[in-house]
Amino acid sequence: MSPELLKIINSMGLWVVAFLMVSIVLIQAGLYVRQALKAAAAIQMPREKCLKGLRAGMITAVGPSLAIVIIMIGMMAVVGAPMTWMRLSIIGAAPTELTAATLGAKAVGVEFGSPQYDLYAFVASNWGMALNDFGWLFVTALFATRLEWVRKKVGGGDPAWLALLTSAAAIGAFAYLMSGNLLAGGPKAIGVVAGGLSMVGFLQLAKRFPGLKEYTLGLAMVVGMFIAAFFAR
Asked: What are 135-144's pLDDT values in tens digits?
């Protein structure tokens, strides 16, 4: 990579653009939390319970964030710190972003991160990441407001069945995310099993120490990652 390209991908102009995008995400997050607190007040949910849920979410996010940091370092070396910061702040799916950036570079006949990676490849990588994300953002914008109607229609208005349906959907989502690692075998499968067993163990501990419950998922993720990394050496 040429010194000129390094100056461009870490230029002040890109930092300003990235800051504007990340600021929008922070504003959206603030508005979302405010609306959630208003809804909680409307159903007379205690503020302490809301804050406890927020704290649990932030703690749980620590585990996935460790993997993102590792990929972020690699992306920064090729597409620069501003674009990496922006992409992973507004999307967060680090492996997907890295794959999209790689495919964008290959579209102009250049290997991602190679000495031939130039300004055209950099632009192609950014277009690859943007177009890759357009699909699910477009579908979400069109259909997200209608999904609750679909859920109620499928559930038939039965609260017990709706709760079961929602739980089954969550289990299915986690199973889908883990299935690739299980089928891959080796350290990845060991990490999945270790994380699952850790979760069971932490939940049992949480029965004796209720304050531990909100930390269980994040701790299980960290245990699974460290064990997978240990066996991958």
From this structure: 878 888 888 7
Residues 173-189 have pLDDT tens digits of: 778 878 888 888 898 89
Domain range for residue 171?
156-233
Query: Total domain count for the chain?
Result: 2
- Domain boundary among the residues 85, 115, 146 is at 146
| 18 and 130 together in one domain | yes
| Angle at alpha carbon of residue 174, lines to 188 and 211, rounded to 5° | 95
8 Å CB contact between 215 and 59: yes
Chain-centroid distance of CA 110 in Å reads: 28
Whether residue 113 is found in the same domain as residue 164:
no
Among the candidates 109, 127, 146, a domain finishes at 146
pTM: 0.63
In whole angstroms, what is the distance from residue 81 CA to residue 72 CA? 9
**What token pair was written down for 56?**
């649990």
CA atoms of 115 and 42, how far apart (whole Å): 58
| Per-residue tokens: 105 | 């570079």
Q: Residue 114 has what DSSP assignment?
A: S
